[in-house]
Amino acid sequence: MIRRPATRARLLGGLAPLTIVLAIALSAPALGQESAGPQVSSDGTALTGLSAAQLFDIADQARVAGRLADAEAIYRALTQDAAQEIRSEARFRLGMMLSDQKRYQDAALAFRAILDEQPEATRVRLELARVLAAMGDEGRARQQLRQAQAAGLPPEVQQVVNRFASALRSNKSFGGNFEAAFAPDTNLNRATRSKTLDTALGEFTLSDDAREQSGLGFHLTGQIYARLGLGGNFTLVPRVSGDGTFYGKSQFNDLAGSALIGVEWQSGGDRIIPSVGRTWRTYGGNAYSRTTSADLRWTHRLGQRAQSDIGLSYARTHYMRNAQQDGDLFGLTASIERALNARAGVGISLSGQRQTAADPQFATTSGGATLLGWREAGRMTFFANATVRRLESDAPYLLTGTRRKEWFLRGGIGATFRQIEVAGFSPVLRFAYERNISSVTLFDYRRATVDVGITRAF
Q1: What residues are paired with 434 via a beta bridge?
Q2: Cβ–Cβ < 8 Å for 131, 111
């Protein structure tokens, strides 16, 4: 206990002397070791010789007394301690205090910093899941639960986590997210590099806009949503989202926006969401298509480590530039994601699509598969994916007299760098390469992209 009231007032009352105190005190013995006891400096402005245990005690007293700013300052100073045990304890106490204040983003950052050093810290991962759910990010919350269970839990803890996973539901009424990135692109219009096109009427020279174009773009995507309880296990979920890529060559700007409304039903490990909506797309500043859609998605928890998603969709699309492309779009997707351990996970997704059209040359049938994986390594998360898809048209393409038969191949790698964090966001770097091998020269292309952007740091 600090005996001089004036000195204690300086310690707990203002941040400037508190910073001086902590800068000196953190060189004291680690938690659990004996210290020589607190000493008052000759000018009476700071205490020295405080152990980490004593600093934790002072911070806890400040928190209980309602001096939250002082408690936070001490905890944050202790997060810089050389001993991992002290850093982690300080971050955990800080995260719990911030969560109680509903400062969920700051709490998530504190818990994430612990997991970067100690990925097997199951209690911390469960608290991060709880905070993410409170922020409305239910998908990431469930991923954290799967990783916690993959690390291995005692039977009695597993039962509690199972109940938590079954009851997990975001109670955030309104929310949103966004991501921004600079996007260098070697083929921003996904066009052939060939200068000519062989047709039934002879060889045509393609214009520059119809051929491969490179450029530096800016990609922005985001959404806002609401969750309105309807009683029982039902929630009304309206959602507005947008996705756009903008280039110096404005004729290639690609912008899409959608408005959807769905009803979510959740019980135990199952969640079913039927939804309907409308999508608008513009290309080069001109209206490109309008789509009315209906969708049904079923998410099911598979044991402790895995989750499956099955989706059925129907859409009716009108193309502004070519009404002969108008038609129906039927889709089926099925995916499984599995946590391998506390650090890594994998997933596989299968899809099939049938697109009708007024002119059968534009009608297609396609199907494919995507593999993905991720691994945490310290304060970085690495991820990779690979896609293969087959497409065939119903009838020959009129210009060439050849049916479209294509193999689409795509591979991507990337990483998130949490060493850098500003306002809850960290840099993300992605590289991808695409190859579309088509029997119709016009659709045969290669493309490489690099995204340098920001994403959530947790």
Answers
A1: 410, 447
A2: yes
β-sheet bridge partners, residue 366: 353, 391
* Whether residues 93 and 147 fall in one domain: yes
Contacts of 5 (CB under 8 A, 6+ apart): none
If you search the block for the tokens 């309880």, which residue do you land on?
229
List the beta strands (DSSP E) in 122-169: none
Distance CA 82, CA 396 (A): 69
Q: Report d(CA 78, CA 90) in Å as an integer.
A: 6
Q: At what angle do helices 68-78 and 52-64 cross, to 10 degrees?
A: 160
Amino acid in position 329: L
DSSP character string of 32-81: TS-----EE-TTSS-EE---HHHHHHHHHHHHHTT-HHHHHHHHHHHTT-
Tens digit of each residue's pLDDT (9 = 90 or more) over 107-118: 999 999 999 999
What gap in Å lies between CA 188 and CA 249, rounded to an integer? 10
Q: Does residue 227 sit in the same domain as residue 127? A: no
Question: Can you give the CATH number for the domain in which 226 is found?
Answer: 2.40.160.40
127 plus 190 within the same structural domain: no
Mean pLDDT of each 10-residue bin along the chain, 458 residues long: 29 34 38 43 51 90 93 93 92 95 94 93 90 85 86 66 64 79 89 75 70 89 89 89 91 93 88 95 94 95 90 96 94 95 93 96 97 93 97 91 95 94 90 96 93 87
Q: Are the beta carbons of 104 and 134 closer than 8 angstroms?
A: yes
Are 171 and 134 contacting, i.e. CB atoms less than 8 angstroms apart?
yes
Provide the residue range defining the domain that includes 351: 174-456
**84 close to 101: Cβ distance less than 8 angstroms:** no
Q: What global pTM score does this model have?
A: 0.78
The residues near 414 (Cβ < 8 Å, ≥ 6 apart) are 382, 383, 384, 428, 429, 430, 431, 451
Write the secondary structure of 82-133 as one string of H (helix), E (strand) and C (coil).
CCHHHHHHHHHHHHHHHHHCCCHHHHHHHHHHHHHHCCCCHHHHHHHHHHHH
Six token digits for residue 125:
């991962």
* Residue 275 and residue 243 share a domain: yes
The pLDDT value given to residue 68: 94
